[in-house]
């Protein structure tokens, strides 16, 4: 019997709610595809929360990252979605990655990194090149802190350069994006289930 799994999608759009967001749309589509494989999930828009600069678990003051961190730790699958600006991931995405850096020193009761046995999906949208570059940065950062990257779990859409059409403005999801989303969801759910049943060994 398939074990139930959970996912958290973090949208790193620069737009606070309730503005429409292409990153939110892609994140929601990935969550919907994961649901077809028995994965329940939620999406959070990082910019709607106070995420203080720093690389500690709790930066004090009005820092709201600790509450978001608990949701990250509770999820079997992290869906990390960012827009492309100037060929790079967003500043919000960088802030989230920097806060996740604190997990490098966090271990479980067996001495294993606390994020072992969890998998990650990358989502990138934008009207310029950079999706492969951004996914490489995101996956390397998430791998460093313990996430496992399943096969073909980079989902992206690049619009025509220097044009005003965003992903959210499309009449329908391009077939290539839909196929990539389906593959990413299937592979991520499969690997997350395997790791939940048979964890990485301790030292």
TrEMBL record:
Domain of life of the native organism: Bacteria
Annotated NADPH-dependent FMN reductase-like domain residues: 8-154
GO terms, molecular function: oxidoreductase activity
Pfam families in the record: FMN_red
Membrane-crossing residue ranges in chain numbering: none
Classification via SUPFAM superfamilies: Flavoproteins
Coiled coil: none
InterPro entries, per database record: Flavoprotein-like_sf (IPR029039), FMN_Rdtase-like_dom (IPR005025)
Protein name: Multimeric flavodoxin WrbA
Species: Microbacterium hydrocarbonoxydans
């Amino acid at each position: 019997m398939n074990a139930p799994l959970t996912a958290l999608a973090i949208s790193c759009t620069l737009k606070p709610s309730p503005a429409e967001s292409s990153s939110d749309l892609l994140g929601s589509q990935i969550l919907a595809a994961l649901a077809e494989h028995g994965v329940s999930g939620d999406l959070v828009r990082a910019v709607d929360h106070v995420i203080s600069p720093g690389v500690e678990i709790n930066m004090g003051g009005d820092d709201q990252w600790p509450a978001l961190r608990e949701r990250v730790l509770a999820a079997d699958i992290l869906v990390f979605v960012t827009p492309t600006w100037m060929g790079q991931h967003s500043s919000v995405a960088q802030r989230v990655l920097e806060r996740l850096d604190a997990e490098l020193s966090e271990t479980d009761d067996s001495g294993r990194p606390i994020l072992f046995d969890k998998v990650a999906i990358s989502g990138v949208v934008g009207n310029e090149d950079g999706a492969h570059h951004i996914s490489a940065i995101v996956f390397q950062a998430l791998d460093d802190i313990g996430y496992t990257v399943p096969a073909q779990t980079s989902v992206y859409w690049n619009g025509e350069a220097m044009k005003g059409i965003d992903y959210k403005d499309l009449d329908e999801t391009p077939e290539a994006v839909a196929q990539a989303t389906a593959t990413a969801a299937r592979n991520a759910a499969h690997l997350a289930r395997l790791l939940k049943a048979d964890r990485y060994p301790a030292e």
